Each structure stands twice: as structure tokens, then as C-alpha cells.
Amino acid sequence: MNQYVLPPGIEVFERGWLSANNIFHFGEEDVSLVDTGYCAHQNMTLNLVHNALAKHHLSTLTKVVNTHLHSDHCGGNAALMNAYDCEVYIPAAEELAVNDWNTDLLSYDNLGQECPRFKHSGLLIPGQEILLGRYLWKILSAPGHDPHSIMLYQEKHGILISADALWEEGFGVIFPELWGEPGFEEVAQTLDLIESLPVSLVIPGHGMPFAGVTKAIATARSRLDYLASDPDRNARHGAKVLLKYKLLEWRAKSLLEVNDWIINTPALRSAANQLNMGMEEFSEWLPQALVKSGAADIQDGCLVDIG
């Protein structure tokens, strides 16, 4: 089992795949939460924060910090703002999209996902530092999975909050490549940046924190080489991940409704186009591909989540 030790004032709420991990920071001057999970899990997010505050005899949450604005990382923002009147800090490049609540630019329309509207109070600017709980963290640009994503690095303790830029067994889907924007080279550059840092512990967006950084980077590079050598692989992988993610929320859904969602999700239409498949063919192939991979089953005309 993976073992890790965090310095005082930091706790990790491991959430799974539908909701990203939440990192709770607490000190005398500041109480912060990095990433807030998916909106379908917002009550759980509220309970986790409430219990952490009570455990440490804290009165309120000072601020929320989002590594990026995919719905699994910021879906609890609105609920936490309503409960604690906390500030929200977002990557600087997302400021206009959040101000206008442009769900196209924010990827929610494109990826077929949902996120309750929220307002921001501050911006995360790469190269600057931000106080989280007891420690200052450097803000690092981390494009690839999302062009505006950031990471957070605590130099004294060698801790990297990597979001979806690095997991123990890879990284998040390279979404920009699905719709014809660059992403492979950006992932490589982000891995180079991580490799240049003295990192003793990584807190990923999904999965348990881990110390084997060299091994994780090697695994990520191998995965990147595999995907970049044939972009169709990334399209197939991304499409399956998007449907699996939605199925985690649905648990089960009729194939007719699944096909309708596939046809009306722009990122999946882009993936179908990249794979030179018509939407009818693609919407039949994708659920079957999920079944073939062992991530779903078809029962009584419904696609059912398993695994």
C-alpha cells in the first residue's frame, strides 16, 4: 500500500474519479481548499469541509483554489461560497470565461458536463505565490490536459499538487487534441517542468498521493509517446473516458439516451470526425468499446456502470 506523510496543516480528501481530490489547508491566518469535486457530490464536499473545520476547531473556510475548471475540480465552488462566503481563486486565463459564464469556453458544453455558476475573487498567476494554510505555494503553469491548468508547489517540503498533469500511472486525457488544438507537446513540457523540481511527494487530482515521482514521470512519458505516435489512440481513449465519466454519474442509462448524449456532445463529435466515423456509427461503437474494456455492461437496453 502506498504510504505518505504530510506536514502539519495539510489533509487530503481522496474522492475517486467523478470528483477530484480535495486538499484541505489550515493555519492561523488562512483555511483553504484546493479543488471542490463534482456538483453531484457537493453535499459530500460540504460534509468533508464541515467535519475538517470541526475537527480542528476552525470557524470558517477562507478560500477555494481551483487548479483548473473542469467540472470535477470546481463543481462544489458554488455550494462552498454559499455556505462560507469564501473567496474563490481561479487560473488567470479563465477570468473572462468565468465573468461571462461562457459554458462553451469553460468546456462544460464541449465535454457534456455540468457545473453550477460561481464567481471568483482572485486569480492564480504562474510565477506568483499564494498562501494556503500555513505555507506559501508557488503557482506553476501546467498546460496539456487543460490549456489553462496550474499546479502548486511547496518548495520547503517538496510537495507538488499536480492536479491532472501527473498521476501515479499517467495523466488526464489530453482534451485539446480531440478538437484539433495542440496538447501532446504541452504535456511533455509540463512533465519536463515537474522533473526539474525537487519533489518528494505528489498530490494528484485523482488517486492517492505518492512519492515515486521518477517512476511516475517515466510512466507518463511512455503513455504520452504511445498516444502521440497515433493521435487516433488519444481520440478513442478520450471518448471512452468522457462516456465512462458520465456513466459514473448516471450509474445506468438507456442506450437511446446514451446515444443522444453522445451525438449532442461536441467533443465526441470531434473525436468521431478525427476517427473518420459518422455519428451513427460512432454512437454505436462507443458504448460497445466501453463494454469491451470492462468498464460497463449492457443490461435490458441500458448501459450500466461496472468496475
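(ticket continues) Second input and output from the same batch:
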Amino acid sequence: MDRFNVGVKVVQNAGNLLRQCRLEEAEICQKTSHQDLVTLWDRRIEQLLRNEILTAFPRDAIVGEEYPSEAHRAESVTWYIDPIDGTTNFINQHQNYAISVGCWDGNKPLFGLVLDVERKALYWARHGGGAWQGQTPIHTSGRRELSDLLLTTPGLQYTFLEPHPYQERMIQLSRKVRGVRCLGSVALELCEVAAGRADLFVTMRSSPWDHNAARIILEEAGGAIFTVEGKPLPLNQKSTVLGLSSADLRDYILTV
């Protein structure tokens, strides 16, 4: 049984369920604040993904947002899953949210799947096989001049308004690029860079389940991904993220 095909099937099944759901106010809960929300559907979809993956591959490990990680087993492959990336968008807009599934064998990427649920657009990549949106190959832009670049970030307040060690640098960067956009989903915004519709991505906080699928897609599309310090992006811990349309941009952006 092929993990990629199982992954595509379970992601599409989960997307079909989410498109049909009608969210009730009682199904929405706060995690840490009124800006950090979770719904019963986050938990239901993650449980669905976990059950179907582990039924097919019981020795695999799963790292997800809503439930404790499955214990790593000998010779295990690890799946990083985010049942609803962009929960606030799901609640308020019922669009611009994604199901994200990345599969890794140790530190080796196997494949990444990001489903833009409402648009029924599946971004995907298998290691060494390029990046795709549905049946169409995608590639990062060729733009290299700073004044031509479009920057995207999932949270304007966390990137530009709230104090953090990189705040002034981010403000300077925003003034020099062509524009700044905020979609509100780490996975979808990294896919925007992969598809050439944006050139830079930055966030001050991201978890492995947020980016470990889309990073595969971005790199297969010709892009590169680091921490905002320009260091290798860790696989198994929370971090800042800097996504680029080309690795050549790294030193350029770090000197802004």
C-alpha cells in the first residue's frame, strides 16, 4: 500500500466533510485567548486522519496539533498533520483554510499535501518529483529585486505590531518590498510562494504540523525555507519561519 495514495484519499475525504459542516457557536473554544481558537471540527478531522492513517500503517508515528503525538516506533515513518490550518478563517469566513499532511522518513521528506478545502485545490509534492497544484506543475517566481517582491505573513499583529527580537527588521522589510499580504494560513501561504503568487513568507511562530507539509512543496517548487535567522528549519519543534522563492534570496533578505 502506497502512503502517498492513502494520504491523498484521507485528505480529500476530510475536505469533503469540512465543506459540508455547519459550524455552531457552541463548537468553538478558546485555547489561550480570543485570538487562539479551536473547534470540535479540528478535533474530529484530526481523529479521522489519525484513524485512517494508522489503520493503513499501524507502525507509523503521527505528530498533530490537537492530540498527543503517537509514540515513535522502530523504523517508523512520521506524519505531521494539521486538521484545520487557519481555524479563525474557518470560523469567520469559511474559506482560506487548509488540511495539511506531511510525511517524513526520519529527516528525509517523502511527500507533502496541502488541501485548500473550499477551493478544492490540492497542492502536493513527492520528494524529487516537483510540485503540483492538482495536475498542473507549479514553480516559484523568478523575481529577485526587493522592490518587486510580495511578502505574505499569516499574522500581521505577531509579525509587525507586537514586540519581538526581529520586529524592526520585519518593519524595514515591509517598507522595501512591493507589498504585504496576510492570508491567515501558514500552509496556504507557503504554497502561494511555491506557486509564484508571492515571493517571501515570514512568521514569528509556527509548529511542525503547520509547515512540514508545505515546506516539501515549496522546496520541490524551487524555493527554500529557513528560520528568520537564516538557519536550517528544525523538523520537530516550534520556530520562526522564513520561506523564499529561491535560496539565493536568503543573504539578501537577512541584510535588510
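Agent notes: The domain at 146-254 is CATH 3.40.190.80 (D-Maltodextrin-Binding Protein; domain 2). The mean pLDDT is 91. Closing as not reproducible unless the customer responds.
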